[in-house]
Structure formats: C-alpha cells, structure tokens
Amino acid sequence: MKTIRVEMLEDGKLIVDHSGFLGGECMDDLEAIVRDLKQLGIEVRILKQQKKGEFYARTGNHIRRR
After folding, report:
1. Domain interval for residue 26
2. Which residues are 7's β-sheet partners?
3. What is the pLDDT of residues 12-53, one digit of tens each?
4. Whole-prediction pTM value?
5. Which of 47, 46, 12, 10 is CA-nearest to residue 30?
6. With contact defined as beta carbons under 8 Å apart, do 6 and 15 qualify?
7. What angle do CA 55, 9, 28 make, to 5 degrees?
8. CA 57 from centre of chain
9. Is residue 61 part of a domain?
10. Per the domain annotation, does 63 fall within a domain?
C-alpha cells in the first residue's frame, strides 16, 4: 500500500516520507506535492533527499541495456 507521511517541524521545514512506491514513482509524487504547494504561494526548497531501497527496486518497466 502506498502511503505518504508529511511532518511539519517548528521551523517550517517539512519531512516527506513515501512508503510502498517503487522506482521513481515517489519522485513523480513529490514533484506534484511541490507544485501544489507553490500554487498555494508556499515557497519550497528541497534541502535533502534520502532515497530508500524501494527507489532502487526494479518495477518491471525498465529495460537493462548493456
């Protein structure tokens, strides 16, 4: 099951944690979140990204080339 956990810190920073996403799906979703926040007039800067093992999982949509 795909879940997104968003935590807002006292200093205004957000921690966004994606679970259950494979490959780059989480990055597509993060881009949508950032876009939506910017449309609301909220300045967004990504300070750090930490990719989990799920990011590197094969989704079956990728063809390995040599």
Report:
1. 3-56
2. 15
3. 888 999 999 888 888 999 999 999 999 999 888 898 888 888
4. 0.69
5. 46
6. yes
7. 30
8. 15
9. no
10. no
In a domain, 62, yes or no: no
3-state SS of 19-44 is ECCCCCHHHHHHHHHHHHHHHCCCCC
The pLDDT confidence band at residue 60, using thresholds 50, 70 and 90, is low
Q: Residue 3's pLDDT band (boundaries 50, 70, 90)?
A: very high
Measured in degrees and rounded to the nearest 5, phi and psi for residue 12 equal: 95, -5
C-alpha distances out from residue 16 to 9, 47, 64, 65, Å: 11, 12, 30, 32
Number of structural domains found in the chain: 1
- Helix (H) or strand (E) holding 4, with range, is strand 3-8
